[in-house]
Amino acid sequence: MWIQTFFYLVALISIAKCSDITPAVFGIELYGMPAAFGDFNSDELTDVFMLRTNGSQHNGDMTVEIFLAAEQEPLLRPKPDLNCLFKDHVTSIVPGDFDGDVFMDILVTTFNNEKKLTYVHILWGGNGHLNCSNEWNPFIEMRDQPLALDYNQDMIIDLFGVDKNGTRMFWIFNENRTTPDTVELPKHMPLEPHIRNPHSNAFLDWNGDFLPDLVITTMKSFEIWYGTEKGFKFSHEIELPYNISVDKNFKGEFGQTLYLDVELTGKMALLLPLCFDEACTNCTIMMYLNGWYNLRVNFRDPNNVLWGFVKPNGHRYTETITLRGGDFNMDGYPDLLATLQSAKQTQSFLLQNVACNNCAGFNRTFDVKWQALNPFYNQTAMAVFYDFYQDGILDVILVEFDKTKDVYRTAAFKNSLDYDANFVKVMVLTGRTNSMYPISPGSLGKKKRTYGTNLPGPSIAYRTTTQDGSPRNAIAAQLPQSAHFSLNLPYTTFGLGRTPNFVDALTIGVRIMKIVFDF
């Protein structure tokens, strides 16, 4: 059976102050840009796929390099032979198994200025090594960046995107590393709208049947294509809020969509960061949950300084407005990380998911915690959740931009809760095996040396009963997006709160099956 699931139910106790742990995590290797996460060497630790430049951000060569996770400090370490050099501008990294040999490969996209096309390269992985490809002989030429998915349920990663002729296309990868087959997405109307660039297409279960669906972001709407055993079937469109797709007077910006169960109802909501004005000084977060709702987030800090989303400026991480989700305080409700700007500076902040008692039609919103990521105050271009100590607590990787040197520098923030908390951590793997590599000891006992790699699209849901007897349901998608530095972790962590709530059922859904664990 080509699927494997790891899950943990843990009671966690931690009492400490939040702190800057950059030296303990990165040592002296501070210059780099996190681009993706995955377990490259099958040691059950989450590695970081980094971009590093040789010179200026705009003129220097770029190296794709793997920082292997370790249990001793420094917790993230570059390995000299796990890197490949590119002359063109690297736009994204997608780890996954693209040939079915169970070893993690790396998809790298570069932008070719001469042809104005995206080149797709595959760095084929092996047992502890990486094969650099010929940059001038790309595997695929396409527009914008691809979405990783599994089209034909063979647990080999495939791609969806727009080919160089403007056709919506799937690329189906095989076991022999040859050119992938192509399957065109059927047209649902004679003149289809252009897919937005940058897009935030997604592969996740939208209708609750535990089959991953396809969400396509166009210039006018979000197209919902339901997953079937034979591909995808168009269902409906979700129009952009406030009719901004047809409002000729709209001069603002809308960013990348994020898909979270914001209210713990067991149903995925669509979050959309929105600027009403050209300068992004008047901002909000929109939520689609059977209709659009303005969450009316207060972006004015205690000193009466007004902040807003960073207006897309073409720089790394801020080429589009991006929210990143994770349960920071372990209460079960997903929180956000976002990069904001004021008139004087740019900084990343935690937005905590809080109750909203006087809101019409919705029950939760987000509150900016202005001091939560202290001591990181200024010029952070990006923040993303990451579990440094593999203890279920989501810490934060920050990227600071040094304008004087034109370089990006990583930093690490330790999140230390001051109360007991419980959580469930789930990772769904491809489950493919390689008979050439025998069983060996691992941190969870004996295991196969190759037990599977990143798998996009699975749904993970749980059902529990709270202390007051109320039912609680939650759902999450694993690796639903892969383009434009979405930086999703390859696992899901559900906080269960401060009281010892017990999980009644855990449901895992992939395209080939649904598995229910009753406790």
Description:
The chain has about 525 residues and is an all-beta fold. The strands form 9 sheets. Strands 7, 8, 9, 10, 11, 12, 13 and 14 form an 8-stranded antiparallel β-sheet that branches. Strands 19, 20, 21, 22 and 23 form a 5-stranded antiparallel β-sheet that branches. Strand 30 (about 395-400) and strand 31 (about 405-415) form a beta hairpin. The chain is about 0% helix and about 45% strand. Mean pLDDT is about 90; it is low at about 10-15.
How do you describe this structure in short?
The chain is an all-beta fold. It is 1% helix and 47% strand.
Question: Which band does the percent of strand residues land in?
Answer: over 45%
Low-pLDDT segments, ≥5 res: 9-16
The total of beta strands comes to 39
Mean pLDDT: 89
Radius of gyration, whole Å: 22 Å
Class derived from helix and strand content = mainly beta
**Largest sheet report:** 8 strands, antiparallel
Which outline best applies? globular
What is the number of helical segments per DSSP (H or I, 4+ residues)? 1
Ends distance: 22 Å
What's the helical proportion of residues?
under 10%
